[in-house]
Amino acid sequence: MIEAVDVPGKILENSEIASGIFRIEIEAPEIAVSALPGQFVTLRISQHSLPFLRRPMSIALANPDNGVIRIYYKVVGIGTLLLSELSPQASLDIAGPFGRPFSFSADYTKVALLGRGMGIAPLIFKALTEAMAGKEVWAFFSARSMSNIFGEQELRKFGVNFYFGSDDASKMSSDYLLQYFFTIAKSEKFDYAATCGSKRMIRLIQDLNKTQGTFAEALVEQKMACGIGFCKGCAITILNNFERKTVLVCRDGPVFPANEVIVDEL
Amino acid sequence: MSFEPDHSIEIFGVKWKTPLTTASGTFELGDMARKLFDLNDFGAITLKSLTLNPREGNPPPRIAEVDCGLLNSIGLANPGINYFLEQILPKIKSFGIPLILSIAGDSIEEYVSLAQKLSKIEGLMALEVNMSCPNASKRMLEFGSNPKDSYFLVKEICRVSHYPIIAKLTPNCLSIQDIALAVEEAGANAVSLINTLIGMDVDLLLKKPITGLPTAGLSGPAIRTIALRMVWEVYKVVKIPIIGMGGIIRAEDAIKFFLVGASAVALGTVNFIDFSASKKIINGLDSYLRENSFASLKEIIGLAHKSLEFMRCGGD
Questions:
Q1: pLDDT tens column, B92-136
Q2: pLDDT in tens, A209-250
Q3: Is B314 helix (H, G, I), strand (E, B) or coil?
Q4: Burial class of residue A138 (count of CB atoms within 10 Å of its CB; 0-12, 13-18, 19+)
Q5: pLDDT digits (tens, 9 = 90+) for A119-167
Q6: CATH number of A5-98
Q7: Which residues on A lie below 8 Å from B73 (Cβ)?
Q8: Pick from A3, A73, A56: which is nearest to A32 by CA?
Q9: Rounded to an integer, what distance in angstroms lies between the CA atom of residue B150 and that of residue B180?
């Protein structure tokens, strides 16, 4: 069943939360009502041809009660630059939700989420959903700079065990965070782990899957033109039952079982 | 005074309720299409090219955004004709949309074999011969880039198919007029043009081509003026209808294609960007016809040529 719709969303907020990193909130009740963690929306930033393509963005929060979709984005090119210049109250063509979400099951109770850089965004949605379902949630987020880590306040508010590290930190470096995660994983025995934003983190949870049987999923990125399975542009190769298989990130993913992801080919 | 202009057309003896189709490879008929698009806006849906065997497609990255356009090196990824006929066609036929199926091959035998298989299927509108994919084999591109090969290819397909044959032409050739004349002579019932232009882009950071295959097909508004020029040229020499395409994203673009001689137009890359483009184009076309007092779309097809004849005749 496809729930996706294409609607004119209303921008409620579009603010820079750290250097070059923005949080945008868009009112789009038709999308917020069905969006799940791991799914994405696509934004048509301009009705003219600049940027030419829509921009796929991970959903960082969808609130069915007030109909608001939250997205975090980093200004990296002309598309995100023009997006950052849009003012509240402006209308923005938003379509979605698209893609295969993270799995959700009452069977697992201890959840580990590993995010790096902008890959933190979809994990915020996942963390809150799991926490609200009464799960024990641990978040391990890292970024190049401490100021680029977001979501701490709201995650802590919902009782998420929040750990972070950054490349520029003197105490908790990104490297140390992962070592720390591994130590915790040994004692805590997570039964579910998800990651986004780092090849190294995918390898870590692949390892966890092998050694502890943790159900592990990775959200992967690939350049997309359409986001709806038409253009066949976002293909990657995965390992499915030990056989190489070409799949589309937009439709078959963006979330895949971590052990199917061929990290070296991403 | 307000009236409803007639935007229906007739191509190879078949009535299209609107002059819009989809460019092969840019649309997939299924649940997503039904959810996001209004399929009633289209007179026909042209599907992605089918090959005899499944094709995984080219290595990633397969797409890159460029100024006013898109580079792609998909490489005809498709599940193969047998899977399509068994698993996909029965479902999409139930949608009741007129279908144009596109075929592609590495040899005349492969095309003929595909056309034969599809001739046994009932209820299709037409077959489109993709003799111009820049991302598959060199051989395929060669079919479409010289008149002799184009002629023999289309002739053999026409021999085995009872369906109308549309030859999809490539802009990557010396003279598109010669190719169009050759396929008309061979029995094609219509031509569609243009396929993508071969281009490339370079990743400055990695210092290598931006797509997995170094060269890729360019589509989008960047190629529109070239496509218009080619439809203009082909209209001058052939009698069969032209399905025009290349960078159409709004009504004005489509109208220009009709004025230079297209009987129908295909929406391609815009399907990735604007899911309601078809609606805007139909509405814009109707408004244009109304505002210029044309009762039907047929009256404006090729009209830009007539203005030129008038000038040559020394009219005032």
A1: 999 999 999 999 998 899 999 999 999 999 999 999 999 876 666
A2: 999 999 999 999 999 999 999 999 999 999 998 899 999 999
A3: coil
A4: buried
A5: 999 999 999 999 999 999 999 999 999 999 999 999 999 999 999 999 9
A6: 2.40.30.10
A7: none
A8: A3
A9: 9
Question: Which CATH number is correct for A110-221, 3.30.43.10, 3.30.70.2860, 3.40.50.80, 3.30.70.330?
Answer: 3.40.50.80
Q: At what angle do helices A199-212 and A174-188 cross, to 10 degrees?
A: 20
Question: For A4, which of B36, B57, B66 is closest by C-beta distance?
Answer: B36
Residue B178 falls in which region: left (phi positive, over 0), alpha (psi -120 to 50) or beta: alpha
pLDDT of residue B316: 45
pLDDT at residue A175 is higher than 50 = yes
Options 3.40.50.2300, 3.20.20.70, 3.40.30.10, 3.10.100.10; CATH for B9-312 is 3.20.20.70
Q: Which long-range contacts (CB under 8 A, 24 or more apart) does A156-163 make?
A: A158/A127, A158/A128, A158/A131, A158/A132, A159/A131, A160/A127, A160/A128, A160/A131, A161/A136, A161/A137, A163/A138, A163/A139
B298, B9 Cβ separation under 8 angstroms = yes
Beta-carbon contacts of residue B184 (< 8 Å; ≥ 6 apart)? B191, B238, B239, B240
* Average pLDDT of the residues in A44-65: 95
Q: What's the pLDDT at A2? A: 85
Interface probe for A, chosen from B63, B73, B78, B135 (most Cβ of A below 10 Å), is: B63
For strands A5-18 and A21-27, give the pairing. antiparallel
Interface of B with A in 56-115 (CB under 8 A): 56-57, 60-70, 72, 74, 77
Instruction: Tell me if the pTM is above 0.80.
Output: yes
Q: Alpha carbon B134 to chain centroid distance? A: 14
- Outline which parts of chain A fall under CATH 2.40.30.10: 5-98
Any A CB within 8 A of B28 CB: yes
Does any CB of chain A come closer than 8 Å to the CB of residue B217? no
How far is residue B126's CA from residue B165's CA, in Å, rounded to a whole number? 6
Strands A161-166 and A40-44: unpaired
Q: In this structure, which amino acid lies at residue B163?
A: Y
Contact B312, B31 (CB under 8 A): no
Neighbours of B94 (CB within 10 A): 8
pLDDT the model gives residue B275: 97
Q: Is B54 an interface residue toward A (CB < 8 Å)?
A: no
Question: What is the torsion angle, in degrees rounded to the nearest 10, for the CA atoms of residue A42, residue A43, residue A44 and residue A49?
Answer: -80
